Amino acid sequence: MASRLNPYISFDGNAREAMEFYRDVLGGELRLSTFGEYAPPDTPGGDKIMHAMLETPGGFTLMGADTPPGQPYHRGDNISISLSGEDAGELRGYWEGLSADGTVAVPLEKQMWGDEFGMCVDRFGITWMVNIAGSSSPAP
């Protein structure tokens, strides 16, 4: 699979509704994961969407999520760009370039879902997320 560049939208608790709406409009397959799938069952906000991905027949990919519980939601700052794929070398290169002279919010490292993931804000204030599928790098 080639690396992909996708818009990633943050929502204020209505990601499921929004992503289902986009699926109805654009068509395609919608995959949803909740915060509760990766936390204890009594976790507040466990039913909220941690990650959603819509892939359409026309080749569009749209991603989104609810703002994590306990973090503020800021309208206008609610879109990021996601780079994802399996080519670890290519994606790590993008990460190095994008995070240089920027701010790393989440270091690029193995995550609980098994992929390598990192998030940074580049020197122009744009938030980037990099996800390397099924990375075999050691866990932190």
Automatic annotation (TrEMBL):
<dbReference type="Pfam" id="PF00903">
    <property type="entry name" value="Glyoxalase"/>
</dbReference>
<dbReference type="InterPro" id="IPR004360">
    <property type="entry name" value="Glyas_Fos-R_dOase_dom"/>
</dbReference>
<dbReference type="InterPro" id="IPR029068">
    <property type="entry name" value="Glyas_Bleomycin-R_OHBP_Dase"/>
</dbReference>
<protein>
    <submittedName>
        <fullName>VOC family protein</fullName>
    </submittedName>
</protein>
<dbReference type="InterPro" id="IPR028973">
    <property type="entry name" value="PhnB-like"/>
</dbReference>
<feature type="domain" description="Glyoxalase/fosfomycin resistance/dioxygenase">
    <location>
        <begin position="5"/>
        <end position="130"/>
    </location>
</feature>
